[in-house]
Design brief:
By secondary structure, the chain is α/β, with parallel strands linked by helices. The chain has 6 helices and 7 strands. The radius of gyration is 58 Å and the shape is elongated.
C-alpha cells in the first residue's frame, strides 16, 4: 500500500503561540514595574498614612499614661480634701455644741446659785437634826437594851428549837467505817472534827476554795483509813452541799463512795449519838495567833 503524501497545509503554525507568550511576558513585566513603584513609595514596609496613624497611636498612649498619673494624684488630693472637710465639719459641730453648753451654763448660773443656797439651808437643818438625835442617843440605847432583854427572856430554854437526832439507817455504812460530818444549811457549812469540836465556813465558792480550816479538814479526813464524809443537808442546804462535795472531789480526789448525803429535818443542833463509835475523831487545829500589831479577827 502506498503512503499518502503530506500536503503543506497540514504543517503547525507557531506564530499564535509566540504572540501569546509575548503578551504574557509583557503583562508580567508590567506587574513587576507596578510592584517596584509601590514598594518605593513605602517607608519600612508601611505607607505614609500607616506611619502617621502609628505615630498618632503612640502619642495617644503617652497622653493616656500621663493622664492616668495625673488622675491618680488628683484622686489622692480629692480624698484628702474630703477627709479635711469631714474633720472641719466635725470640729465645727463640736464648737457649736460647746458654745451652746457655755450659753446654757451662763443661763443656769443664777439658778445654780439659788439651788446652792437652798442646799446649804437644807444641810444646816440636817446638822441641827443630827445634833438633836445625838443628844437622844443614850435614851435610844437604853430602850434597845430593854428590848433585847425582853427578846432573850422570850427565847428561854423552853422556846429553843429541839436538837435533831441523826439516824444512821439508810446511810450505807460498811463495818469499820469512820464517819465525819458536815452540816450543810443555808449559806454556811459546819464541819465536825470530832463529837465536840466544830468550825463554820461560809458556803461561797471563793471562801470554800481559800478557807485554810476547811481545806485542812478535807485533807486530814482523806488520810484516815475507811473514812467517809456524810453531809447532813437541811431543807435549804442543797447548794452548800454541791459546792463542798464538788470541791472535795475536784481538789482532793474524793471518790463518790467516800461522800454521802443524809437529809435532816428541822433547824436544831445535830445529835450524832446513834452513830456510836463510828464517829471520827480528829484534833482540831489550834487557832492562828494574830501577828503583832495586826487587828483581831472578828
Amino acid at each position: 500500500m502506498t503512503r499518502r503524501p503530506r500536503h503543506k497545509a497540514d504543517e503547525i503554525m507557531m506564530i499564535p503561540f509566540l504572540d501569546i507568550l509575548c503578551s504574557l511576558i509583557g503583562v508580567l513585566v508590567l506587574i513587576i514595574v507596578v510592584l517596584v513603584i509601590a514598594q518605593t513609595q513605602r517607608i519600612n514596609g508601611r505607607t505614609p498614612e500607616e506611619l502617621q496613624r502609628a505615630q498618632e497611636f503612640i502619642r495617644m498612649q503617652k497622653m493616656q499614661k500621663e493622664n492616668a498619673i495625673k488622675y491618680s494624684g488628683l484622686t489622692d488630693k480629692l480624698d484628702k480634701l474630703t477627709k479635711t472637710q469631714d474633720e472641719s465639719r466635725a470640729k465645727k459641730l463640736a464648737a457649736e455644741k460647746l458654745s451652746e453648753m457655755l450659753r446654757l451654763a451662763e443661763m443656769n448660773q443664777e439658778k445654780n446659785k439659788e439651788s446652792a443656797s437652798k442646799l446649804q439651808k437644807e444641810l444646816e437643818d440636817l446638822l441641827v437634826e443630827i445634833r438633836g438625835l445625838t443628844a437622844q442617843d443614850p435614851d435610844l440605847k437604853a430602850k434597845i437594851a430593854e428590848l433585847q432583854a425582853a427578846v432573850a427572856k422570850l427565847q428561854g430554854p423552853e422556846n429553843k428549837e429541839r436538837s435533831v437526832v441523826v439516824n444512821p439507817q439508810g446511810s450505807g455504812l460498811a463495818a469499820g467505817s469512820v464517819i465525819f460530818f458536815v452540816d450543810a444549811a443555808g449559806d454556811k457549812l459546819t464541819y465536825f472534827w470530832n463529837e465536840k469540836e466544830k468550825a463554820v465556813v461560809s458556803a461561797v465558792p471563793e471562801v470554800i476554795v481559800a478557807d485554810a480550816g476547811f481545806n485542812a479538814f478535807l485533807e486530814a479526813v482523806k488520810k484516815v483509813p475507811q473514812s467517809k464524809i456524810i453531809f447532813l443537808t437541811r431543807d435549804d442546804g442543797m447548794r452548800s452541799y454541791n459546792l463542798a462535795a464538788g470541791w472535795a472531789q475536784s481538789q482532793y480526789k474524793y471518790p463518790v463512795a467516800q461522800l454521802g448525803k443524809l437529809p435532816v429535818p428541822g433547824r436544831g443542833e445535830l445529835d450524832m449519838k446513834l452513830f456510836g463509835n463510828l464517829v471520827g475523831k480528829l484534833p482540831a487545829p489550834a487557832p492562828e495567833k494574830p501577828a503583832p500589831g495586826a487587828p483581831p479577827k472578828p
